[in-house]
């Protein structure tokens, strides 16, 4: 599967995102009770933040297929919870719930997200901090080369801090980065 990326438009894309982030299968996104205005506000805040960016992943037809966020962990999400290195970038991704799942879709998404991040030569390592209970994403992370380091306590959850270098990504996926 081939994907492209475009910056998320907080107002234009809010209705689509609202459906994604409030779906019961998106429980780990922690926006289950969000109203449309809450989603608009959250993504307007991200759009205004120089250290946090939201992108939509588009399928081959140019239709939105998933959400990706990248952030600077020295300034967002993980401040004070680990020692950031130059070249670290944090990442979140969300695939929407569907009634017609496509085998391998989510793995294709995380692979595309990682390849996109590593297109930037300044990115040396990707950092993630999923909920410790999110076993499905732990398996996906491992499939693209992430290595768990330790559990950390964030304000909203206990998270599994994990890292993936460019070399680990290439070794796990065979995708040039």
UniProtKB/TrEMBL annotation:
Q: Which domain of life is it from?
A: Bacteria
Instruction: Name the UniProt key words of this record, in alphabetical order.
Output: Transferase
Pathway involvement of the protein, from the record: Siderophore biosynthesis; mycobactin biosynthesis
Q: Where is the Acyltransferase MbtK/IucB-like conserved domain?
A: 6-53
GO biological process: one example: siderophore biosynthetic process
Sample GO molecular function, one term: N-acyltransferase activity
Q: Which PANTHER family match?
A: LYSINE N-ACYLTRANSFERASE C17G9.06C-RELATED (PTHR31438:SF1)
Purpose of the protein:
Acyltransferase required for the direct transfer of medium- to long-chain fatty acyl moieties from a carrier protein (MbtL) on to the epsilon-amino group of lysine residue in the mycobactin core.
Protein name, entry field: Lysine N-acyltransferase MbtK
């Amino acid at each position: 599967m081939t994907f492209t990326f475009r910056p998320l438009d907080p107002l234009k894309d809010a209705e689509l995102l609202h459906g994604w982030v409030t779906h019961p299968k998106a429980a780990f996104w922690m926006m289950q009770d969000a109203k449309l205005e809450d989603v608009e506000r959250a993504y307007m805040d991200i759009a205004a933040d120089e250290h946090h960016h939201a992108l939509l992943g588009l399928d081959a037809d140019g239709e939105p297929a998933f959400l990706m966020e990248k952030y600077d962990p020295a300034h967002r999400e993980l401040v004070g919870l680990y020692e950031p290195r130059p070249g670290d970038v944090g990442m979140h991704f969300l695939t929407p719930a569907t009634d017609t799942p496509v085998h391998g879709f989510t793995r294709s998404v995380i692979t595309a997200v990682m390849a996109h991040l590593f297109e930037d030569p300044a990115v040396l390592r990707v950092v993630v901090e999923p909920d410790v209970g999110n076993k499905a994403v732990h398996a996906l992370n491992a499939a693209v080369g992430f290595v768990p380091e330790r559990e950390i306590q964030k304000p909203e959850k206990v998270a599994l801090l994990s890292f993936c270098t460019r070399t680990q990504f290439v070794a796990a996926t065979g995708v040039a980065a």
